Amino acid sequence: MNEHSMNEHRTEIDSTIDRMNLKVGNSMLCSPVITAAGCSGHGTELSAYGDLSTLGAVTVKSLSKDPYAGNEPPRMLGINGGMINSVGLQNEGVKGWYENWYKSCKRLNVTTVVSIFGFSIEDYVETIKELQVMLEEDRSTVKAIEINASCPNVANKKMFSQDADLLNSLIRAVKEVTIDIDLWVKLSPQVSDLLEIAEAAISGGASSLTLTNTLAGTALDKSGKSLLGAKSGGISYDALHPVALKIVSQVRERYKDIGIIGVGGVKDLKTALDFFYSGADAVAVGTHNFIDPRFPWKLVEELEQFQSHHGLKSLKELRVS
After folding, report:
1. 267 touches 21 (CB < 8 A)
2. What is the secondary structure of 190-258 as a DSSP string?
3. Using DSSP, how many helices (H) and how many strands (E) does the chain show?
4. Which of 14, 34, 109, 293 could hold 49 in an S-S bridge, CB 3.0 to 4.6 Å?
5. Residue ranges covered by each domain of the chain
6. What torsion do the CA atoms of 107, 113, 116, 121 make, to the nearest 10 degrees?
7. CA distance linking residue 32 with residue 312, whole number of Å
8. The pLDDT of residue 172
9. What is the pLDDT of residue 104?
10. Stated pTM of the model
11. Tens digits of residue pLDDT in 269-288
12. 220-275 pLDDT, tens per residue?
C-alpha cells in the first residue's frame, strides 16, 4: 500500500471512529466494540491482527496485587454450545503488567480497561492503590478499572457479586481510593436477585456494569472423572448468550442511565445487535477472539455500516425498551 492509499485508509478509519463515538458510564470510547477480560491477553497481543486504537477498549486479563498461579490443568475445553475454561485468574500481578505491558499499550495508543480481582476487600483496595501510584505520571491510556466481582471471597466462601451487602461494601471501598478513573463492575449471572446485586454495585459508585461473567459448570469423561483440573469452570459463548441478553434487558429496564457492556456469545453482527436491542451501550468480544482474532475490527465495520444504512445517530436508538 503506497503512502497515498495509506492516508486514504487512515481517513476512512478516522471517519468511522467519529461516527461511532459513544459514552459508556463516564468514559468516552471511539467504538462500541471492546475485548473482554481474559480473551485478548494483557493489552497488545492482538495488535498483529488490527489497529488496537480503533477499538473502544481492550480489557486486560484480570490482575491481582501479587502474581497468581491459577488452577491446575487441564484448563480449557470445547463443549456443546461453547467453551468451558478453568484458567483460574492466572496473572503476573499488577506490577508485572505495568512493567511488561503498559508501555506497549501506551505506544500503540490502546484504550485499556484494567480488570482487577481479589480475595478480600483489602486486596482490591491495595491493588488499585498500587496501580494508581504506577500510573501517577500518565494514565491517559487507562480509561476505566473493571472490578471483577465474580471471583470467590475466601473468608465468606462466596462471590462478592452473590451478596448485595458484601458487594456494596467492596465498591464503596474501591470508589473511595479510585482517582480520576471510571469504575466498572463485572457481575455474575448466578444470583438469586440480579437487580438487587446491580443496585448494590450502582449505589456503591459503579458508573457501568459488565453483564455478564461466565456460568459455572463442569464436564466429565466416560468414567465420570472431571475433564478439568479444578473440576469446574466458566461456560461462555453460545450457551451464555441468551442468559446475558436477559440480564442486560432487566438491568436496562430498571436503570435507564447506567452504562452497560454486554458480553456473552458475541460472534457476528446479529449477536452484537441483540445486546444493543436489549439496552447495552457497548459489547465485549470474548471467546470468539480465539476463533477469529480479527473479528473485533470486522464487527466495528459491520456496526458502522448498519448504523449508516439505517440512518441512526447512535446504536442506542435500537433499544426496544
Report:
1. no
2. --S-HHHHHHHHHHHT-SEEEE--PEEE--B-TTS-BSSTTS-EEEEGGGTHHHHHHHHHHHHHH-SSS
3. 10, 16
4. 293
5. 3-318
6. 130
7. 14
8. 98
9. 95
10. 0.92
11. 999 999 999 999 999 999 99
12. 999 999 999 999 899 999 999 999 999 999 999 999 999 999 999 999 999 999 99
Q: Give the model's pLDDT for residue 138.
A: 85
Asked if 45 and 27 count as a contact pair (C-beta separation under 8 A), the reply is: no
Grid coordinates standing for 294?
A: 480479527
Decide if 39 is catalytic. Answer: no
Which parts of the chain sit beneath pLDDT 70?
A: 1-19, 152-157, 321
75 backbone dihedrals φ, ψ, rounded to 5°? -120, -20
Does the domain made of 3-318 have the CATH classification 3.40.50.300? Answer: no
Whole-angstrom distance, CA of residue 47 vs CA of residue 33: 15
Place of cell 452484537: 272
HSE of 10, CA atoms in CB hemisphere, 13 A? 7
**Three-state secondary structure of 93-153:** HHHHHHHHHHHHHHHCCCCEEEEECCCCHHHHHHHHHHHHHHCCCCCCCEEEEEEECCCEE
d(CA 304, CA 55): 12
What sign does the CA torsion over 124, 129, 134, 138 have? Answer: positive
- Please name the helix (run of DSSP H) or strand (run of DSSP E) that holds residue 77, with its range, or none: strand 76-79
The whole-number pLDDT of residue 139 equals: 85
